[in-house]
Amino acid sequence: MHFANPWRGTSAAFLIALLTVNQSVRAQPEPKFHLEEAAISDIQRAILSKRLTSVALVELYLKRIKAYNSTCVNEPMGILGPVTTIPHAGQINALSTLNLRPAARKARGFDERKARSLTDAADNNPNMPDALEVAANQDRQFNQTRKLIGPLHGVVIAVKDQYDTFDMRTTSGADAPYANDRPPEDATFVKRLRDAGAIILAKANLAEYATDGARSSFGGTFCNPYDTEREPGMSSAGSASAVAANLVTCAIGEETVVSIRWPASVNSLVGLAPTEELVSRKGMMGAGLNMRTGPICRTVQDAAKVLDVIAGYDPKDEQTVFGAHRKPNQPYLSQAAARRLDGVRIGVIREYMARKLFSKADDESITIVDHAIADLRKLGATIVDPGPEGALFQSCIARYGPELLNAAFTRQFPDLFTADSGGRPRSDQIAALLDMHADPAHVPQNLSLRTLNSMAVVGEGKYMINRYLQERGDTNIRSNADLVAKSKFYQDPNFPDRKQAREDAERATVYDTAARLQTRFALQNLFLQCMEEQRLDALVSPMSTVPPRKLTAPREPTVNGRPPIGWSLIGQQGFPAITVPAGFTTEVWDRARDNDSGTRLIGPVKAALPVGVDFIARPFDEPTLLRIASAFEAATRHRRPPPEFGPLPGEP
After folding, report:
1. Distance between CA 471 and CA 464 in Å, rounded?
2. Contact in structure between 253 and 236 (CB atoms under 8 Å)
3. Strands 345-348 and 538-542
4. Active site residue 427
5. Res. 542: pLDDT tops 90
6. Which of 117, 172, 259, 544 is catalytic?
7. What is the distance between the terminal CA atoms of the chain, rounded to a whole angstrom?
């Protein structure tokens, strides 16, 4: 059972930090507890003063889930058919599965679709306590000791359904007929959360198999609480929108491209995508080289508290060996209370704010981030800014990019490096690269931060899914081919075709990480060199300059290297990044389809939608990120809850 206290053998530094949390929470005055926007410190202060119990807290969140987590779109042909949007739906459908036994679930009015297992109808295993039972056990232990059982005591968490939970179904959003829809064990970080006192209340809905689009075949479509006709971000958006609407305290997301930070940005939240090797991916369905695990919370301090628990080496994830002995001596939380940034040098990535190269859809978000940069300067930071339409890294990329990227660079510019029909070079590429090294003026002018790109991993989708399923050991779903043949898939031209994606993955017969790893190393080297030349501690940029689209509308097209969602390149090389609320739009431009199958901008449309600012640091330098983010957050306080998802009658 998962009731035992696991903290025997914990490092002295962490125990001192935990004691400090207990003492600091006790030492503070005791204001009335309010559930809306409650931080971890608010919850634990109320528990320590006996004004709140863990059971009562879970019940409060369940009431909000019951009120706000139903279907948020019209489904005239059912959950697998085309959908239409509902203005002011008052629902977000962020959580797909609840950690409740059948009797508790039915008593609170949740239907079978929210059951924590559809293959175990009885669900009476005493070694699988549900969220209410875990909370009750916490309350018993607290009543006996008057101490918190861990640093996340009473923290109610939603976990993206891409991750394994031994007590709840895990399908990555698919409607797949597993013989046992529960995996055999928790993901490593999930166990660490439980051991620290967190209460895992729900699995969050996600873009199926952690790709694009706010929809899954099992969970259905989910919506943005700030405008229910709009998307709530990338694949971790169920996690983010649940936190934004105060259905849970924090959530866990996964990021391959921008799937932690973009949902955080468009939900007015803090999203931390840590150094890729810092948090274990064991128990992640389809884990790949770009994928990382991180917290989504309403405050920087809460994100730091979660990171303190989940970070660290895991022998079950070989990638975390690069993070062994790389955690700082002091808890991450110790860096999350900064108020000044004197002595911190922050470079502005103007390449991501080039108004002349983008569209009207980008303008207001760029203005909001410009204001954030001014706020950083007021906090004492030294801002290294190439100026509007400038480029922070241009000269550095021209000097080092061709040599470091070599073969990838020559493939990117076939007009300069011509080849015959068999792919053999027609000229001496080494001579050309040496010429560019000697004189960067010969480097193509359009080589920039916007045009650099990562390489895909050949065969990764099939290999990693099959590896996961092999380790899971289900008797019915054994492979990606089984997922294709046996699953139900939604059919809607407004959303990506999930079956086709699985079929495309199945056709692979070679698994080759070489090009991706070489490019990743080259880009890490390049970006570290560019930062060191300017003595930069961190970078600042927009998370995205494009507001979230209407759920059934076309995406803003890529233009001059600007993607239709968030900026991803530096993060995809493993650099830690954190998104913090930076403000709200007043109006946006949307895309509509033209009669000739193209699209056009329409607007402006009045809309108060959240915008986030990104801070990026060197690998394993999360302390610097947390210092910058916490100082900016304290000075600006841009986070505000979605107005249509306020407190319920009688809610404290």
Report:
1. 11
2. yes
3. parallel
4. no
5. yes
6. 259
7. 33
pLDDT value for 19: 54
CA distance to 39, 91, 211, per residue, from 257 (Å): 28, 27, 9
Tokens of 467: 């590896």
- Cα 220 to Cα 87, 223, 346, 620, 643, distances in angstroms: 17, 10, 41, 36, 24
Q: Where are the alpha helices (DSSP H) in 198-273?
A: 237-244, 261-265
CATH superfamily of 33-337: Amidase signature (AS) domain (3.90.1300.10)
Q: What tens digit of pLDDT does each residue of 351-404 get?
A: 999 999 999 999 999 999 999 999 999 999 999 999 999 999 999 999 999 999
What residues contact 414, with CB distance under 8 A and at least 6 apart? none
123 in the Ramachandran plot: left (φ > 0), alpha (ψ -120 to 50) or beta?
left
Give the residues across from 541 on adjacent strands: 614
CA atoms within 13 A on the CB side of 96: 35
Mean pLDDT across the stretch 249-262? 96
Q: Is the pTM of this model over 0.85?
A: yes
Cβ-contact 217, 80 below 8 angstroms: yes
Q: How many residues does the chain have?
A: 652
Whole-angstrom Cα distance, residue 252 to residue 266?
Answer: 16
Distance, in Å, from the CA atom of 352 to the CA atom of 240, rounded to the nearest integer, reads: 24
Greatest distance between any 2 Cα atoms in the chain: 79
Instruction: From 590, 611, 613, select the one nearest 601 (Cα to Cα).
Output: 590
Model pLDDT for residues 424-457, shown as the tens digit of each residue: 888 899 999 999 999 999 999 899 999 998 888 9
**What are the angstrom distances between the C-alpha of 521 and each of 275, 518, 615?**
14, 5, 21
241 is catalytic: no
CB 4 within 8 A of CB 141: no
- Best CA proximity match to 74, nearest among 66, 64, 85: 85
Give the mean model confidence (pLDDT) for residues 261-272: 98
Domain limits, the chain: 33-337
Rounded distance, CA 273 to CA 276, Å? 8
In this structure, the number of other CB atoms found within 10 A of the CB of residue 145 comes to 10
- Residue among 54, 172, 235, 241 flagged as catalytic: 235
Q: Based on the residue annotation, tell me whether 160 is a catalytic residue of this protein.
A: yes
Mention every residue, 6+ apart, whose C-beta is less than 8 A from residue 223.
Answer: 72, 73, 85, 89, 91, 92, 93, 214, 229, 230, 231, 232, 241, 551
Question: What phi and psi, each to the nearest 5 degrees, are found at residue 74?
Answer: -80, 135
Separation CA 528–CA 445 (nearest Å): 22
Question: Of 114, 160, 282, 305, which residue is the catalytic one?
Answer: 160
CA distance 644 to 413: 50
Residue type, 360: K
| Angle of helix 131-145 versus helix 54-68 axis, rounded to 10 | 150
